[in-house]
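Our preliminary data section would be incomplete without showing what the modeling component actually yields. Below, a chain of 199 amino acids is followed by its predicted structure, encoded as tokens that our downstream tools consume directly.
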Amino acid sequence: MNAFRVAALDVDGVLGDFEKHWRECAEEVLGRPMRKANEQHSMGGRYGLANKELDAVWRAFHATEWGSVPLYDHASELVLALEDLGCTVWAVTSIDERHRAARAESLAGLIPDGRIVCVGDNAPASAKVAVLRDLGAVAFLEDHPANANAALGTVSLSVLLDRGYLGLEAPEYGVTVIDDVMDFPVLVENLLKRTGRAA
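Predicted structure:
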């Protein structure tokens, strides 16, 4: 592995369509259609669920659903574009280690099991930063501003995929904000050329 060309990716909201799968699970558990109330990051807030309802959905999701979170159409293209740049791609995901096998199943070999790091459900941003530091990652793509902000100074390129979530902190100066995930490989390529790390 070339530590100077490690690119790390968040999974849910970046590679996997977590919201769609979670919504479908909620509809099955609660027996009604889920109508989005707003764009809050919290799934309970986003779909206007009571705490009891939210707990029931999460119980079901944790029990059976992590392994079948569908990949976005762009997931393979994103990873392959990074690999074409000579990057080793790692998944750094905010789910519990007990779901690691399910996470690998949902990624369907796109990122090998040995390159999936689970930092824990509701882990602080510092948990992902510690992983990025250990990996020597040069670039990181995330859809949660707190994690992208925390990565500043640890990776050369911290990128926020803007999903329009409400109620979260703003990206800090130095975080690159994109709304098209395929802008990330372009940014990485430019960084590698600028720093003389290109393959």
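The CA atoms of residues 23 and 136 lie 35 Å apart. Helices lie at 18-30, 43-46, 51-64, 75-84, 100-107, 125-135, 145-151, 183-195. Preliminary results of this kind motivate Aim 1 of the renewal.
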